[in-house]
User: Fold these one by one.
Assistant:
Number 1:
Amino acid sequence: MALLWLVILCGVSSATALDNGLALTPPMGWLTWERFRCITDCKTYPSECISEDLIKRTVDMMVIEGYRDAGYDYVGIDDCWLEKTRGPDGRMVPDRERFPSGMNALADYIHSRGLKFGIYQDYGNLTCAGYPGVLGSEQLDVDTFVSWDVDYIKLDGCYINATEMDSGYPAFGKLLNDSGRPILYSCSWPAYQEDIKMMPDYASIAHHCNLWRNWDDIDDSWWSLERIMDWFGDNQERLAPHAGPGHWNDPDMLLIGNFGLSEDQARVQMAVWAVLAAPLLISADLATMKPEFKSILLNRDILAVDQDPMGKQGLRVYKEKKIAIWTRELFDGSYAVAFVSHRTDGAAYVFRYKLKDFKLPEQIYDVQDLYKEESNRSVGPNEEFAVKLNPTGVKFYKFIPRSTEKVRTNEVVIIDENKLGK
Ligand SMILES: *[C@@H]1O[C@H](CO)[C@@H](O)[C@H](O)[C@H]1NC(C)=O
Ligand SMILES: *[C@@H]1O[C@H](CO)[C@@H](O)[C@H](O)[C@H]1NC(C)=O
Ligand SMILES: *[C@@H]1O[C@H](CO)[C@@H](O)[C@H](O)[C@H]1NC(C)=O
Ligand SMILES: *[C@@H]1O[C@H](CO)[C@@H](O)[C@H](O)[C@H]1NC(C)=O
């Protein structure tokens, strides 16, 4: 019974979504940009330039190293894959030196390994790196993407007035829909509007896009990661309600496995992204991935939090003395809780909280450490819960009510009365 109502709830919340049946949980995969940027010089950077070789070796690693089987199933090429001019027929031409086999062959390679093919374009005259954008060639470009068996399009927003995006992104989405091929649609629409302090229409964005970049690009540093976490926390009231099955806020790629984050900081990103129901797009060289970072990316319990079928985005519920607490309610009645330290003063201090400090319903919980370093414990109303936090580190727990079934039933009754109007 409880399960039935939850299924109905999911149906209700996705009724406003882009109805292409895709991204019922946040998309997972790999994308070139953060790690490989616009490297086009394959002589100097033979294993890092944006090329079919990079994509193919990544595909191989995703299969062999278990990323695909953990759910990372899209492989995406970001900017810098095009020739600088279109062909005589007006079509986009992939760079002839770096993609000599063409996009159909690359798509076949990706699909034959059980993965899906993502590609980047831009709604304006040019892409951000100066390659031809789709403006004026939208139909031809959608036809071309379909002929290349593309499964995911990230549409950026350089070289176009942000005021035109409210009509432009839906129009391009309609061409994707009319094509008949299911193509995941990633929009950069709100990011450009937030940038000029124009209030994005998130209801419309969630109706037309499967995921959308809300804000600035992430860079390879703790500083950049902190800014993004702060921004998503500070703006959560207007962002979180628009996330749900089929439509997700996107705080940008995972830095994990690159140069800029320590192991503790990488754990922070994974935990907070899971609470945010964020798309999980690795942007790292899988060939040089260190085991400690790989185990963060492949942590099944944390991936299950991110991919929770209810699709409810979590919130930052506490921020004091450079500690932030983030919580997310899950389908089975439990809660994911991340304690994040923004402190840099050296010692790993113990902090003590009560359930009401982080706004969890007052009941008895069994608590499981999702990074599996601590043994299970329990906590009840008015008891202190002690967490030892490394500087710029995290503890990430699942709080499981002793009586899950009761909580689930209560919740369903509330939903039944208020949301379904019965
Ligand atoms: C796009 O290019 C056309 C033709 O060159 C030009 O008229 C138009 O102003 C450009 N639009 C933007 C947003 O740059
Ligand atoms: C963008 O469009 C708006 C409304 O049409 C206009 O007022 C504004 O000047 C344009 N901005 C730029 C940079 O072209
Ligand atoms: C197009 O939209 C309709 C109605 O929203 C939906 O049922 C269908 O699955 C969509 N098709 C594609 C290919 O996106
Ligand atoms: C901790 O709790 C989880 C969830 O209830 C359970 O799966 C796991 O076996 C427990 N671990 C130990 C060491 O008891």
Number 2:
Amino acid sequence: MTTPQNPSFTTQIVHADRRGGAEQGAIHQPVHTSVQYGYDKVEDLIAVFQGTAKGGFNYARQGTPTTAALESMVTQMENGRGTIAFATGMAGICAIFLTLLKAGDHLVASQFVFGNTNSVFGTLADLGIEVTLVDVTNAANVAAALRPTTRMVFVETIANPGTQIPDLQGIGAVCQEHGLLYVVDNTVASPYLFQAESVGAGLVLNSLTKSIGGQGAALGGAVTDTGRYDWSRYPNIFAAYRKGDPKGWGLQQLRKKGLRDMGATLSSQAAHQLALGAETLALRMDRTSATALALAQWLEQHPAVARVLYPMLPSHPQHAFAQKHLKAGSWLLSFELRDPGQCLAVCNRLQLPIKATGLADTRTLIIPVAHTIFWEAGPQVRAAMGIADGMIRLSVGLEETQDLLADFAQALQGA
Ligand SMILES: *Cc1c(COP(=O)(O)O)cnc(C)c1O
């Protein structure tokens, strides 16, 4: 399949390892489990430590040839400059916030974010980093929240579970005008459906656990530098990393402080598994998006359903943007029942979707949102995020559309 932004997405990805020169003619990048990396001459070891060697490994906490191959694959997908892999998506998010923000700084973030990211905002506040949450579907709200101490703006391309899409271009323009670092969590859309570099994002976060890995079998995260941010303007780069081309400063600090010091490193075994999943990203996104759209259209006309949240429905508030900028709508679909009291019964009557948290597995997963992933947040946060008591979230898998439609038809009978 092809995308307008990147004419040969899957072709590039399935040949990435070979072009990287895997040893012994291996077609897949091997799994490197060595923790230490040694050199014949001590000068070569010194060059790796001092960053003057091209590539080179010393201790696996900072990466291995296997994690590096995955990093370069994600860089290609996001049309970026470089990527750092982490043990999880949350590790990548925490590395961004904790290594690039300081006490006294101000962060403007979307009020529609992954629940655990929202929980991290509370930690940042305790550390003296102020966070303002805004409705990012209008860039004017971001502009209005800016202060002289604002350093960073953080949004998700398709928010979970409400599927809100920020004014991604408008916010990019605001960040550009004020020299702010624009961070986009692209986990749900994935670089196949949307490249955040196209709207001026400086850093892109992907939970590799979700779309890119796609099998529900390994955790991972990645932070990609798109090359769009001028790090020489960023005040929080340590002197040690203000060396060489300023384009590399951000990732240098993230790797040393966020990966080496904080230690949430992706294992080579998990990197290998995630790289295998990444090869089928486009195929899975096309398939699950088509099924999710069919399901969304079917649910929207069902009398028991009050509202369906899916970007490719004309009823979605950001439908026009989605149609123009997203290749498809993704596997994420939420809906609300007219009678919230039926929420648990409907979930229980469904035979195929598995009652589980998690996203982007090959199997369809279903979860009542207010009772589970947003239970700890409480009613006020839920109301602010537009999460109704009867909201059900679906992560659509690879099952045949007709099988899912038949299952929903029986489960919604009498609801
Ligand atoms: C799951 C998720 C994360 C966190 O990723 P993990 O790999 O589970 O740590 C971050 N952002 C979004 C949008 C997610 O869905």
